[in-house]
Amino acid sequence: MKLLAVTALALSVALPNPAPAKSLTIGLAAAATSLDPQFYVIGPNSALARNIFDGLVNQDAHQKIQPALAISWSRTDDTTWDFKLRPGVKFHDGSPFTANDVVASIKRVPGASKNSPSSFLPYVKAIKDVVAVDPMTVRITTNGPAPLLLNDLSRIAILPASDATVTTEQMNQGKGVIGTGPFKFVSWVPEDQVVLARNDAYWGGKPAWDKVTLRVFKNDSARTAAMLSGDVDMIEDIPTTDTQRLRKDAQVSVVNMTSNRLMYLHMDQGRSTSPFAKGPDGSNPLLKRDVREALSLSIDRAALVQRIMDGQGTPAGQVVPDGYFGQDPTLKVPAYDAGKAKALLARAGYPHGFELTLHASNDRYPNDSKIAQALGQLFSRIGIKTGVVTLPASVYFSRASKLEFSMIMGGAAVETGEPSGVLGPLLETYGPGAGQGNRGRYSSPAFDAALKEARHTLDEGAREALLRKATEIAMHDVGIIPLFFLDNTWAMKKGLSYPGRSDGYTLAFDVKAK
Q: What CATH number matches the domain at 23-251+494-513, 1.10.287.110, 2.40.50.180, 3.40.190.10, 3.90.800.10?
């Protein structure tokens, strides 16, 4: 027995203990609804997918395009793109990544999009054909010049060709959830948690975490409590009411980043009489540019951000934040000027104001009801008799789309990483396939022409100039009133760092231990 004890002791001294496994637990604000990365375009699903899958290209923290499974690309003409693939990449099941996987993944999208509430079809709409030129080269042919092809491809997850026939239902059962990303899928309990394991062979470098658990806390207070109690290492989407509380905790770090989601106001510019905007003669005052500018100048955007949003926002004067492609540095945030607003109203023929009702959601965006009430008070201060009505999003947006209101508040995310993804839906003249989110029915031939030309211009400098031109036209016309960009927020234990992302995604690979 003594000999055995000595031998055991000797072994314990001679062999170092293995390093403890490093695990990371993150509290999410919303649950993914599917494990199929090509089924449903919605933030929680897309964020989860980026932890597991790659695209030919990926978007960085500010939505700029970065090489991923493609290391380079070139155009042989206006409609033909060749992509050189990253060598030596393996899927989570050990199979090698080749051009056939790209072809199969892109061709899978239409089938995977069936019955989707918001499908990926728009991201492959421009693609006429995709073929494997050789094992490490893919050729994509588009229906016409497609300047946003790279942006579109950043949304398409690449799966093994052998899984091209795996259905969404099968993936939701855990079959075929195989990518090339930094983490491998382990398990999913819907509405509760997802468990991931490190991909040691990740082409982008070895992740810091052996195991990642993504837990869902839809209740804001519960998410904050989990952070403060140490049940999680990190949370996303800090409730504005808890921001200062977390900032004061010596064991917690807070990260803010301006998001790609713009909060804005739409005004009825399509009807001579409007149900909730009436001048003394019963006509629609919102048709007049001076009135729309007066409304914009009456808004103290900085005060909204500081007092209602607890600092979690960035005042806006256009549709994309600073640093984005197509952002116009000459367009400034309108300065609060109640005096000028009143003068504009008088010049428009409304020295004593008019009657207006602002409609908004009360459960879609952070503090949406409070923001609407504050706007109503600001409009009233310049003499506009303003009522405010807020409704659940499930009721509000369908009624707004039917043009039942005169002035509405909404939010729009810059999913493409450049202005056209918002300019088109919100401001393009409404019609078949155009301006589907234009609930104010703003219409400008000059704006439409600039935007249309930008969509077909491959030269980046020329396209950026056209996007800025379109933006300037719409902002001068006050086609919408930009309010502010929401901030994305994260809190984490001291000793951890996260750079933040404008798209709001929480990516475990980018969480580092200091």
A: 3.40.190.10
